[in-house]
Known about the structure:
By secondary structure, chain A is of the alpha/beta class. Chain A has helices at 12-19, 21-50, 77-85, 91-103, 109-115, 131-141, 154-158, 172-184, 199-211, 229-237, 275-279, 289-293, 304-321, 414-418, 444-451, 466-480, 488-507, 528-533, and strands at residues 68-73, 121-127, 149-150, 165-168, 188-191, 217-219, 244-252, 328-334, 347-354, 371-378, 387-391, 394-398, 402-406, 429-431, 511-514, 519-520. Chain A has a domain at 68-225 and 470-489: NAD(P)-binding Rossmann-like Domain (Rossmann fold, 3-Layer(aba) Sandwich).
Amino acid sequence: MKKEDNLFNLSRRDLLKGLAGVPFLGAVWYAGAKTTVDAKREKKFLLEQLNIKASPPPPTGSMEGKPIRLGIIGFGIRGEQLCRALGFATKQWLADMKESAEKNSNDTRLSEFLDQENLNVKITAVCDVFDVNAERVIDSFSTPENKVKRYATHKELLSSGEVDAVIIATPDHWHAPMATDAVNAGVHVYIEKPMTHTITETYVLRDAVKNNPKVVLQVGHQHRQTQSFLTAMDIIAKKTLGHVSLVTTNTNRNDDNGAWQYDIHEKASPQTINWDLFLGNAPKVEFNKEHFFRWRKWWAYGSGLSGDLLTHDYDRLNCILKMGIPRSVMASGGIYTHRDGRNVPDVLQVNMEYPDFSTGSSQEDGKEKGMTFVYSATLGNQFDRPTYLMGHDATMELGNVISIYADARSTRFADMIKEGRIDPSVPIYQYNPLANATDAVTSATAKYFANKGLLWTYRDGKRVDSTFLHMREWLSCIRNGGKPSCGIQEGFEEAISAHMAGLSYKLGRRIEWDPQEEKVIAKPGEDLDAVLIANEEKVVVV
Amino acid sequence: MKTNLYSSGQNTSLVLLRILIGWHFLYEGIIKVYNPAWTAKGYLLSASILKPFFNWLSGDSLIGIVDTLNIVGLLAVGAGLLLGLKIRWACVGGIALLALYYLAHPPFGGLEQGPAEGSYWIVNKNLIEIGALVVLYQFPSYYSFGIEKLFSREKPETVNG
């Protein structure tokens, strides 16, 4: 072999063979770089066209100053959860979580609770008709300097002078009477949903809040704190979806706990439960443990799917769309999955009509107007059906992660679809609170992880309990002023809409709202509140 | 002389295998280099076995380093194999990376599988690529194709002087 005069003293052939990998490297590098850079340019182009501002909700104010003195009214399942969000866990829960964390290192519930910010509140008072619940509060939350006092009634608690604010987590039929008394006593209120149990109560509570402007009332729709909602609002404001004609939301559960078949406490008895006080304005019936612990199953104390779960989805959308109270509601359903003596439906479909509502139009004036909001629920299947906002130009899938898909027949995106710059089967926009950047085009893998909820988070890349954030916002408004995100107006709209759905189910007919008079339209001589709380499945069987 | 141990067909096959694997690693690395939003966090968080280890890697303090090391590793292994430079080191590095990918989501019966274009049980493409790198490690194709050839003391011409 002939030697060449080169650096390596190799033949030309060997030199070529030695360096033959270099062009491969160059080609692969160029192809990879070009693919990625082109994709990024397309993404940037699309994001500029959409111009959506992705922003988390602003942080709420300082928790400094004198501790706020809280009274707990109702320490059942939800009351206990709300107290944990405030930084107070029962001894039993702490012991259980410690044991669970020791067994399973992935169980971070205890460490997340301990890491939670101190909200600078103290629980000074409790009111619960069940001795066991009241004693759990006293036993777990009392300190040497601050012994929690128990009051027999909410009125005694409110007039004690020991509380600045109350948490109301009682059965629905007690929500409004207690909240109204608290507001009139100048005590701040965090009230669980639904805000009220009847239409009349809704007006009474609204008047009370109007007359006591210093009182901060927050309704417990913690979904208002979801990180993606401001982004969703901007998506609507930028008319990204075009005219939204249909919104579909869902509840899908398939277990006894989800169907309100809660445990009955072994110590429950007429001696440990103040039964008459529990009943309050509900029809007088004999002591009944099932009614007490599983009150959500009866109209006399609860409000079934319409008050319990529709309200979550309604409020989540009302937060984004601000569509308010529907002009009319039609609902139907039945007790099809838990025939256990309950009288609230466990399968319910609700159609709310908004004939004058529009999110904006990309077509000629006047062609598009009006929207239907659909709530579809079953307690007999838990297949995950996402929430969709369906517009002429695009569809938004709404959750912690937001995905937007252009519609193949969109007017706004028609040119870009024709040019192949938009594929209607791939999201044109995706907002993920944990991703480093908003993403215009996602991969199957990214979607898979996002859908599994692994990339979900709420604040600064950390999982935060949204109830904690909702409580914090309420406390910040009490301390620093400001308007809570789910105040009396939002609560009013939520309650009236839910009651219209409940009435439609019970009466088997369309229930209409008069926006000028601000009234649910009744037939002559009809008492809608009596219908709503009547403790029977349906008033008129159709 | 080592190069004469294999037929030219055998040599060419080994070189071809090396180029294919190098190509694959390099391209994966480059795609990630040019996409700053890429992160392995989701992949690590969803690990089906050795969860404490992979979750530790995906933590806020480590994920930046993990992502960078992964990209550098992919590029180095890819370039090494394509250019024929430090081939055995590249093989070891490639096997280590693939072993991590494999262990995070092993295709064992009963474990949840992520999206895949085929059907796998125990053996998947990561494991096969590991096997291929083991072969390359055992039969390094230095002499017929690659930069290492330029620096080799055992140049074919010098053997017969």
